[in-house]
């Protein structure tokens, strides 16, 4: 349970509850604590050597497992690894890639860098990962080169934050890729960069966000509106805004509208979410071997969710929301998550879009489609060009290029022309059903399954016994009979020959089996040492004050008033514990007590 950051005491309590009492659990809470200590003693100073041995064992037992590492002056410096499933996922879903550095995942402060994408269920998928000694351009360059050796092709779009080392490494290694900066990291700095009264201007912030986040705007329109906005609020000479404007082609959506799948990820939020999930299992006290076990546990959880999504896709039943045949065709083509999105577009294309005008042109027929909001007010007019001979279409909203499936404006035009199936050229492979081979979901391909003979036999026995107990759950006689048969088998086994109790009680053998590596062989690698990265500590780093000396407190939203139970008023400055009314009451009370004591002492003296 330590792979899920559950401590020894809690682990013991959980097992006691699951097993039906303390008498069914082998070991005391102290034994559970000692087990954790045994694992660390087993690893000792051989951590770097053991983690490389484990990767080597993986490459021998798993097909097409790739790993690479760097050693300097006898110390382990960097590692990269990716298994067969990661490679297959990248082959299909590797058009857009995001990666970010994560800290506090191991005791040596090595920087953890997972590579994240989006699969055909719109879920995060990991393409590989690395551990780095530092965050220099050379380190990231080596990491990306190792990634390229494993996956053989470059992504179309790479998403990161504004780290200069990442940017330099990407420009050198991913020469055919377009680098995009995370919009969220840029826009979250806006309140600290704009000072004075402008900081409190909610209209300015709303206009700025509406401008930069627009996905339908063309670059020329963005330039014009940006300049007008700067002139309106007198921000033409603002240094930070000028810097962000000079690199607008690296983060503003208007400059990515013609890149396929550009709206799949506009921020590194998926990357942050994936990194956070890895830290759920791992901790800053883990050795590299323990971290690798935690990583494999998290990857196995990720792939379990992928298998669940695959099952949901294959077992879901079609229920139409329109009477259009094209809706059922979309259900048959796409995964459950994507077919839901496409069917929403079909539904909205029928109810919230209508054609206002048509024209003939050389390419075919031009349709002008009005889009309505929920109040049936026209919001925008989009231009759709349809060539009936091959059913090819293009729309001014650019949705198919941006996200990979047809928009509501297409379906509005298709409905008018009685087109009942989505043309094959508009079915993107990455969103399709069965795009991944079935072997990808087999037992043998899973990280969490131990394929060694003794481990496989134990798992099979446990599965058989559990299945029998579940089948006889409500049959008291059947359970009693099954228990007797198990007892007979146990007696026959224990009385049939000597049992090696020493081997069963050997902690080293158990730890070796858990970690999957043995202590045999020479130690040629030293553990990493002296790593100082730029990752922030917890609650130690103060946020930067806004320019022109404006306090950060002005940025914070006002506190919600709370009821003080002493003065019975809704206030923000105090509560019932430190209310002035309570203090005055206590003061008066103490004063009265002093007077009573004085009067009593005076009466005693008089007597």
From TrEMBL:
InterPro entries: MULE_transposase_dom, Znf_SWIM. Keywords: Metal-binding, Zinc, Zinc-finger. Coiled coil: none annotated. The lineage of its organism: Eukaryota, Viridiplantae, Streptophyta, Embryophyta, Tracheophyta. It comes from Helianthus annuus (Common sunflower). It holds the Pfam family MULE. This is Transcription factor interactor and regulator CCHC(Zn) family. The keyword Zinc-finger applies. Residues 522-561, 575-607 are annotated as: Disordered. GO terms for molecular function: zinc ion binding. Residues 533-543, 579-588 have a biased composition (Basic residues). Residues 382-418 form the SWIM-type domain.
């Amino acid at each position: 349970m330590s792979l899920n950051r559950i401590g020894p005491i809690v682990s013991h309590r959980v097992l006691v509850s699951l097993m039906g009492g303390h008498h069914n659990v082998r070991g005391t809470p102290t034994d559970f604590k000692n087990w954790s200590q045994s694992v660390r003693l087993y690893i000792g100073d051989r951590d770097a050597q053991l983690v490389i041995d484990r990767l080597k064992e993986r490459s021998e037992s798993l097909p097409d497992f790739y790993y690479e590492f760097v050693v300097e002056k006898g110390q382990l410096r960097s590692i990269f690894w990716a298994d067969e499933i990661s490679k297959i996922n990248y082959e299909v879903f590797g058009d857009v890639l995001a990666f970010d550095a994560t800290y506090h995942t191991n005791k040596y402060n090595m920087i953890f860098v997972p590579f994240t994408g989006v699969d055909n269920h719109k879920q995060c998928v990991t393409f590989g990962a690395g551990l780095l000694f530092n965050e220099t351009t050379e380190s990231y360059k080596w990491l990306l080169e190792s990634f390229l050796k494993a996956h053989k092709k470059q992504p179309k779009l790479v998403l990161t934050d504004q780290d200069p080392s990442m940017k330099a490494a990407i420009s050198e290694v991913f020469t055919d890729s377009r680098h995009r900066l995370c919009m969220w990291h840029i826009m979250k700095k806006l309140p600290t960069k704009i000072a004075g009264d402008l900081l409190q201007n909610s209209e300015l912030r709303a206009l700025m966000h509406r401008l930069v986040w627009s996905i339908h705007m063309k670059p020329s329109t963005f330039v014009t509106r940006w300049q007008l906005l700067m002139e309106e609020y007198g921000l033409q000479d603002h240094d930070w805004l000028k810097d962000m404007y000079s690199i607008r082609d690296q983060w503003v959506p208007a400059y990515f509208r013609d890149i396929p799948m550009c709206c799949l990820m506009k921020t590194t939020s998926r990357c942050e979410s994936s990194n956070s999930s890895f830290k759920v299992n791992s901790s800053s006290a883990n050795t590299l071997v323990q971290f690798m076990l935690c990583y494999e546990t998290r990857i196995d959880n990720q792939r379990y969710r992928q298998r669940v999504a695959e099952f949901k896709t294959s077992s879901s039943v079609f229920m139409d929301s329109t009477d259009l045949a094209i809706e059922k065709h979309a259900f048959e083509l796409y995964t459950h998550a994507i077919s839901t999105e496409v069917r929403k577009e079909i539904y909205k294309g029928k109810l919230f879009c209508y054609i206002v005008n048509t024209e003939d042109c050389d390419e075919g027929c031009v349709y002008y489609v009005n889009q309505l909001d929920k109040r049936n007010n026209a919001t925008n007019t989009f231009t759709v060009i349809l060539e009936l001979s091959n059913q090819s279409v293009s729309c001014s909203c650019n949705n198919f290029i941006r996200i990979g499936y047809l928009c509501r404006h297409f379906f509005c035009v298709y409905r008018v022309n009685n087109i009942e199936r989505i043309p094959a050229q508009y079915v993107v492979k990455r969103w399709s059903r069965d795009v991944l081979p079935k072997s990808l979901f087999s037992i043998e391909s899973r990280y969490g399954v131990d394929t060694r003979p003794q481990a496989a036999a134990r798992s099979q026995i446990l599965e058989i016994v559990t299945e029998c107990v579940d089948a006889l759950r409500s049959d008291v006689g059947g359970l009693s009979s099954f228990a007797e048969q198990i007892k007979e088998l146990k007696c026959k086994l224990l009385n049939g020959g000597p049992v090696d109790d020493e081997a069963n009680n050997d902690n080293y053998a158990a730890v070796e089996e858990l970690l999957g590596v043995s202590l045999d062989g020479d130690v040629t690698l030293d553990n990493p040492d002296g790593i100082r990265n730029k990752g922030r500590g917890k609650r130690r780093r103060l946020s930067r004050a806004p320019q022109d000396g404006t306090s950060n407190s002005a940025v914070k939203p006002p506190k919600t008033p709370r009821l003080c139970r002493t003065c019975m008023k809704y206030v923000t400055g105090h509560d019932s514990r430190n209310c002035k009314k309570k203090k005055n009451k206590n003061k008066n009370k103490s004063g009265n007590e002093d007077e009573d004591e004085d009067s009593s002492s005076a009466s005693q003296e008089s007597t």
